[in-house]
Design goal:
The protein has about 280 residues and is α+β, with helices and mostly antiparallel strands. It folds into two domains: about 140 residues, Fructose-1,6-Bisphosphatase, subunit A, domain 1 (Fructose-1,6-Bisphosphatase, Chain A, domain 1, 2-Layer Sandwich), CATH 3.30.540; about 120 residues, D-Maltodextrin-Binding Protein, domain 2, CATH 3.40.190. About 35% of the residues lie in helices and about 30% in strands. The strands form three sheets. It has a seven-stranded mixed β-sheet, sandwiched between helices. A five-stranded mixed β-sheet has the order 11-10-12-14-13, with helices on both faces. Strands 1-2 form a two-stranded antiparallel ribbon. Strand 6 and strand 7 form a beta hairpin. The relative contact order is 0.13.
């Protein structure tokens, strides 16, 4: 499972990521039909973990480990695991857990693979609908993004005032106050704003053109590793900045419109001015 230079083959890793994501999505759908049990809370009393989150991540790790026992893992719900192969898997077993809890069909399994610190493939699978987004860096170095096997591309040349922007809010109530203040400044400058509840899927929506841009503070690597690669493969840019609330701020927009969107986000106060 490696190329001529000894590096793991990204397309084979993509196949394994897709296999694991499909198995986990099936588990998640089954648990939703049987009823959702909140297993714990994390950063606040509204930041929940369900039993299905834990079971999904355990299944993904087990599925990958059966074929690649020497790889490392970083997951939202499980312990970090070191490896010796140069490959690390980054897992979000259910991105959009609150949507899952309420039965809103916008929650996804997200699986990405890094090789020597570079994300080379990512899968985001909407567990409620089955829609599957995938990106892979091919052997020729070209990044390709697909939805259900068909190539996708971000919307080109979107002016700021025509942008439909996705966003999200931190579970920290004080950070939310900062975010809302910034959003009030940005909202009159764009077409409109949507809060759909899954960072991974929002990035995929930018990749396919159903959103024009995305900004959110409080994201973690497992939220955006796969979705960010998919967006970049589809012609978007992403950037991480220090957020005004003290957490990581993620921006995503088509490459041709990125600088204009970035400027509006900074003027609105989403970012920490001292950390730009």
């Amino acid at each position: 499972m490696s190329t001529a230079d000894g590096r793991p083959d990204a397309e084979e890793l993509a196949g394994l990521a897709l296999h694991a994501a499909r198995a986990a999505a099936e588990l998640v759908r089954d648990r939703r039909t049987r009823g959702v049990t909140v297993a714990a809370t994390k950063s606040s009393d509204v930041d929940v973990v369900t039993e299905a989150d834990r079971a999904s991540e355990e299944l993904i790790r087990r599925t990958i480990r059966e074929r690649r026992p020497d790889d490392a893992f970083l997951g939202e719900e499980g312990d970090d695991e070191a490896g010796t192969s140069g490959v690390r898997w980054i897992i979000d077993p259910i991105d959009g857990t609150v949507n899952f809890l309420y039965g809103l069909p916008q929650y996804a399994v997200s699986v990405a693979a890094e090789v020597d610190g570079e994300v080379v493939t990512g899968v985001v699978l909407n567990a409620a609908t089955g829609t599957t987004y995938l990106a892979v860096r091919r052997a020729d170095g070209v990044l390709v993004a697909t939805r259900d096997g068909e190539r996708i591309a971000a919307n080109p040349d979107v002016p700021l005032d025509k942008m439909l922007v996705g966003t999200g809010f931190s579970y920290d109530r004080e950070v939310r106050r900062v975010q809302v203040t910034a959003l009030l400044d940005l909202l009159p400058r764009v077409r409109d704003v949507r809060r759909l509840g899954s960072c991974a899927l929002d990035l995929c929506h930018v990749a396919e053109g159903s959103l024009d841009a995305y900004v959110e503070e409080g994201v973690n690597l497992w939220d955006h590793a796969a979705g960010g690669l998919i967006a970049r493969a589809a012609g978007a840019r992403t950037e991480l900045l220090p957020g005004a609330g003290g957490l990581s701020l993620l921006l995503c927009a088509p490459a041709s419109a990125f600088e204009e969107f970035r400027g509006a986000v900074l003027r609105a106060g989403f970012a920490d001015r001292h950390g730009e």
